[in-house]
Amino acid sequence: MYTINPFAELASSIPPVVMQTFLIVMVLFVVGGTLFDVIHKGSARYFFDNFRKSREQGSKVNFNSKLRIAVHTLLSDVLTSSELIGWKRRTAHLLGMYGFILNVVATFMMVMFYTASDIVTPAIWPKMWTIGAIMVCVGTSWFWFFIRVNVSAEGNSPFTIVRADLFILSVFATNAFALAWAYLQSLSSEWSVLFLGFYLLATTILFGSVPWSKFSHMFFKPAAAFEKGMSVENGSRNNLPEPADRTNPATRDRHSMDLLQDAPLDMGLGMKRETPRHY
How far is CA 137 from CA 105, 134, 148, 150, in A? Predict the structure, then answer.
């Protein structure tokens, strides 16, 4: 299973062109669903209007600064998800994100280029496909049972399901059924057909439900992070005040800071002192 292209094995019963067509339809689902989500929610208009207002209210930002902000957004907000506080939440997210990318890329390569019987699949692709699916299952399960706020902080059952859970459940189901199908197929089990059906159904739900899930969030997040960085750089800060620097006498002596003049600079952990489990 770990070194076998499961789609090449499947090609003996399902023509490769059918699998390739299904894959292309899933890509179109993502593109069409994201565009629908952008138009329906007005996300693109919001970001462009915000960016325009920020540019009009702030100072001009040179090319080098824009490049620095773009690189920081890519490295910090996209590739390492630094906005997620806490190593557990961040690790679970990165496991799911990178596992999903590995699995999707490997699926595309194996289906589009290595389903013919006379073509040998490079060992890297089945390994990447399997490792990616396992990473997704570990990351999503960890989040679902132990990190979700309505479970970890509010005491709800981990089996409580709402519409917002559509993405994480469908992405977990897609990868879990994929692993089960590939394993059963490697054993020539008749049950592999059933799990193939589950795999295809979960995949269709995952990519077909983009307008109603958090899937398109991965495209909005970098844009929002870049816009925020630009607003800080040009000084507009989206009409928000600068963080108060109490070591600066001019800031410390402001009327609004009267109650904090004699307070220690380090005021402790506050609400972060303990994990919220007061349900």
Answer: 17, 5, 15, 20
CA 196-202-205 angle, to 5 degrees, is 140
User: CA 236, 220, 172: angle at the middle one, nearest 5?
Assistant: 145
Tell me the range of 164-168, 219-223, 234-238, 258-262 where mean pLDDT is highest.
164-168
182-211, pLDDT tens digit by residue?
999 999 999 999 999 999 999 999 999 888
* Short-list 269, 245, 220, 265, CA closest to 43: 220
Cα–Cα distance between 142 and 150 in angstroms, integer? 14
pLDDT for position 47? 75
Q: Model-level pTM?
A: 0.84
Q: Using CA atoms, how far apart are residues 31 and 27, in angstroms rounded to an integer?
A: 6
Distant-in-sequence contacts of 111-117, Cβ < 8 A, 24+ apart:
111/7, 111/16, 111/19, 111/20, 111/23, 112/20, 112/23, 114/5, 114/7, 114/8, 115/5, 115/7, 115/8, 115/10, 115/11, 115/16, 115/19, 115/20, 116/8, 116/11, 116/16, 117/8, 117/11, 117/12
Residues 6+ apart with CB under 8 A from 167: 206, 209, 213, 214, 215
Closest to 111 in 3D by CA, of 26, 4, 6: 6
d(CA 83, CA 101): 20
